TrEMBL record:
This is Thioredoxin-related transmembrane protein 2b. GO terms for molecular function: disulfide oxidoreductase activity. PANTHER family: THIOREDOXIN-RELATED, THIOREDOXIN-RELATED TRANSMEMBRANE PROTEIN 2. Keywords: Membrane, Signal, Transmembrane, Transmembrane helix. InterPro entries: Thioredoxin-like_sf, Thioredoxin_domain, TMX2, TMX2_thioredoxin_dom.
Length: 264
């Protein structure tokens, strides 16, 4: 299962991978790599190439080319060792309790602008991201502690809804390291986000711990203000402001009138 999960995630996001790979830089690199292999291995063409092999076989890699390929492979593995380890050793999906509303590309704008008095904290995540999966339990605990009618928690999968990613300027590229991103909305407008993004579009290093989120987003103060909002709503809807309901009179029983006449 550890190997099948990243495979299924890759197949699910294959259309987005195609868009990413169709850039001129990657197309040119792929073309030159294929051209090198074709020239080196095609009979009739490789016979005219120079080679430093002892057997004089110019249709096979010589020791210089083998060293270059090994060196480049080592560099690629070293730069992506963390990503490769996390893809094969992903944390389990969080299935615990939470007070979180999940948005889609059609509902997020309406929910954020529905009530200007409500503060929203929205997590932009992707299911294939190991960092997002590790953060899921922390975010769920925060929603259980601080969720109320004036302070709500939401999530949107920008790996699935690409338009939301562009609209709110959260990159899904692994190189940008913007996943997950927490954004605070008040009155439907963005107030702050973590991690912050520099001019090059890369996220500034920030630790997604519960203590950091409470401190940076000032959740304790937001929660106290939201509780006051709840009290004000309760006072407006208190029963004393509604007119009293008249009590129904009990109907007179005819048997009681007959007994009173007999007594007379």
């Amino acid at each position: 299962m550890a190997l099948l999960t990243p495979l299924f995630a890759f197949l699910y996001h294959l259309p987005q991978v195609y868009k990413w790979l169709l850039k001129p830089y990657y197309v040119a690199s792929l073309f030159m790599s294929v051209a090198f292999l074709a020239v080196r291995k095609t009979p009739g063409i490789c016979d005219h190439l120079a080679s430093q092999r002892e057997d004089g076989n110019s249709c096979d890699f010589d020791w210089r080319e083998v060293e270059i390929l090994m060196f480049l492979s080592a560099i690629v593995m070293m730069k992506n060792r963390r990503a490769m380890f996390l893809m094969t050793c992903k944390p389990p999906l969080y299935m615990g309790p939470e007070y979180i509303k999940y948005f889609s590309d059609k509902t997020i704008d309406d929910e954020l602008n529905k009530d200007s008095r409500v503060t929203w904290i929205v997590e932009f995540f992707a299911n294939w991201s190991p960092e997002c999966q590790s953060f899921a339990s922390v975010y769920a605990d925060l929603s259980l502690k601080y969720n109320c009618s004036g302070l709500k928690f939401g999530k949107v999968d920008i790996g699935r809804y690409g338009e939301v990613s562009k609209r709110y300027k959260v990159s899904t590229s692994p190189l940008s390291k913007q996943l997950p991103s927490l954004v605070l909305f008040q009155g439907g407008k963005e107030v702050m986000r973590r991690p912050q993004v520099d001019k090059k579009g890369r996220a500034v290093s920030w630790s997604f711990t519960e203590e950091n989120i409470i401190r940076e987003f000032n959740l304790n103060e937001l929660y106290q203000k939201s509780k006051k909002l709840n009290r004000n709503k309760a006072e407006k809807l208190s029963p004393s402001q509604f007119p009293p309901v008249p009590e129904e009179e009990e109907p007179e029983q005819p048997g009681a009138d007959a007994e009173s006449k007999k007594d007379k």
